[in-house]
Amino acid sequence: MRVSLGAVEVELPLSPAVSQQAGIAHGGALVAIADCATGLAALSLMPPGADTATIELKINYLAPAVGHRMIARGRVVKAGRRTTVTQAEVFAETAGREKLVGLVTAAFINGTGREDI
After folding, report:
1. Of 3, 29, 37, 75, most Cβ neighbours within 10 A?
2. Domain ranges of the chain
């Protein structure tokens, strides 16, 4: 995982445990790493002790995710006082070559703890 202010990269090794019956990464695995990348990108801009939770997420599946691993690169589009909007691109990697397999837009509610979210 790589983290910088407003941007996070998350990786998931591809295996039968995260694949569907045809050997393609399950769509749920793809959206899970995109949610992690976008949520952590949002959190990277918040003060210590703050928290965030997904309130909306939209995904476009662009191609089958096959290869050695998936990589989700999330970034903050707009950080507001109560909500943060993010985007992620998800790639499938084989032998060092990446293929774009998903695009995600997500919104998060910002808070200082579970009671605020």
Report:
1. 37
2. 2-116
